[in-house]
Amino acid sequence: MFAVVSISGKQYRVAEKDTLFIPYTSGSNEGDTLRFSEVLLLADGDKVKVGRPHVDGAHVSGEVVQHVRGDKIIVFKKKRRKRYKVKRGHRQRYTQIRISSLSAGETD
After folding, report:
1. pLDDT of res. 105
2. How far apart are CA 42 and CA 57, in angstroms?
3. Rounded distance, CA 59 to CA 35, Å?
């Protein structure tokens, strides 16, 4: 069983016990449970439910594992012959979650 869920404007294909990195969610601590109700597709073997735009009653639950930072990205700007150089670094913040359950909600 898997689902396609929309989290912070990005789409992820998830199954139970998957671990994924989502954009940082403030206000959540390690061990908290997050519930995502924007399920776009839910598949169980040959049975597939496609939402318009979301599957009614379906939700995905995940547990916050930790908050991490991504790799450093170097941004370097330069204008030749103008004595202008700027070097900046950036590390994006992510929340690592483990999917604990997929729920179809109401059954047909």
Report:
1. 76
2. 11
3. 7
Global pTM reads 0.82
Residue 96 has pLDDT above 60, yes or no: yes
User: Of 105, 106, 27, which Cα lies nearest the Cα of 60?
Assistant: 105
* Residue position matching structure tokens 């997050």: 34
User: Which tokens in the block code for residue 101?
Assistant: 């359950």
3-class SS of residue 41: strand
Bridge partners (DSSP) listed for residue 14: 3
Q: Tell me if the bond preceding 23 is cis, omega within 30° of 0.
A: no
pLDDT, tens digit, 9 for 90 and up, residues 6-21: 999 999 999 999 999 9
Read off the tokens for 5.
């869920």
Q: Over the range 24-46, which residues count as b (16 or more CB within 10 Å of their CB) and which as e?
A: ebeeeeeeeebebebbbbbbeee
